[in-house]
Every structure is written in C-alpha cells, then in structure tokens.
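Hey, I'm writing a tutorial for new members on how sequence and structure tokens pair up, and I'd like a real worked example in the thread rather than a made-up one. If someone can provide the structure for the chain below, I'll link this post from the tutorial.
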Amino acid sequence: MMFATFPAWLHTLAILSLAVGAVCAITIALDETGRPQKMWIMNLVWPLTALFGSLLWTAGYYIWGRAKTKNQDDEAKPPFPVMVAKGSSHCGAGCTLGDIIAEWAAFAIPSIAIWFGWHSIFAEKTFAVWIPDFILAFGIGIVFQYFTIAPMRGLGLGEGIVAAVKVDIASISAWQIGMYGLMAAIQFGWYSNAFGGIAAVNTPEFWFAMQLSMLSGFCTSYPVNWLLIRAGLKEEM
C-alpha cells in the first residue's frame, strides 16, 4: 500500500487535534498531582483517555472525575450512564496505551509485523500489526482492571486476574472492534481513495485517525459495559 500525500488543511487539523488532546492529558495529570484519585489506577486512566477524548473527556473529568479535597464531602454516585462511561474509559485507557506501544514498536522494528503474518498471511502490514495491538491492549487492559477489581473485592493475585479477564474480555474486544473498524474505514476508505494512500505511523494524520477510531471504540464498548455493570460483573465507578 502506498503512503498518502496529505493536503495542508488536513495536516494542520491533525496537528491541532493531537495538540489539544496532549494539552488536555497534561492538564488532567497536573491536576491529579494535587488531587490524586482514590483508586490510583484512575490517575492513569483520565490522562490516557484525554489523548483521544480531548476537551469532552476533560470536561467529564472536572464534572465527575476530579477527586474531592479533604474539606469537601464525598459526592453521591454519578448517574448510571456516567458510571458506564467511566467504566468504558477505564477499558479504553488500556487499549490506548497498548495500541500506542504496538504501533510504534512495529514501526521501529518492521520484523514484528512479519512475525504476526505480514507477507505470509496478510499482504497489508496494517492487519498484521493489529494482532500485537490487540494482545497488548488486552494485556494492559487486564492489568488496569485487576488494580480496580482486586482492591474493591478484596481478591488475591490469582483470583483478581481471573476476575479481571472475565470482566474485560468482552469490553476490550468490543472496543478494539470499533477502533479497527473506523481505522480501516479512514485508512482504506477515506485516505486511500482521496489522497492516494494510507497514513504512515509517523504522521499526524495517522494519529488523528487513531483519535477518531478510539472514540468509535468507546461507542462500541459502551453498551457492553452497560450490560456488565447492570449484571454486577463489573464494578460501578
């Protein structure tokens, strides 16, 4: 697959979108140094999800996610749809970190894509890289879930890992399906047809597409997390 030559307007839009996401993530991370989350893993979740959620996720953090000070009373539970959104974001943070690591690793070391089927199974490198993408996203997502579910339920290491896998296998899979679907549509539908090729990993346009695709992943995982929380399989957040 050829790499595209993008117009200046799209290049500028991509840089601006990524910059806003980065500023939002840094803003939240700095705020958390003075107001750390009760559940320490959420100190990672909020900045990571702000990388793609940008201003919307930052607003959500200040409305529903920011920790109270010692002089403030604990707030009541947020509305159920908000709890589901926080649960989906918790899942998405692991997916975001896993995808970032996998994509840059495969870019720096092309043999990684070959190990996962590029040339032998897949003619397109993108599809081969999606395999380590999923593996890392799933692994990191399970770690994130473990540090949520184990303390809340008082579980040991083995029990906590098993519970985390049971809880997140459906939501992480749903997230990745949504992410892959929109990423494919952008790369092979929009970029390829409009600009003569796909975006390389080391371009702003690729990560702009990833931002949009992560939002798609949030949308596809949201109903799954709704059902998991309603069923009592996933903790309210």
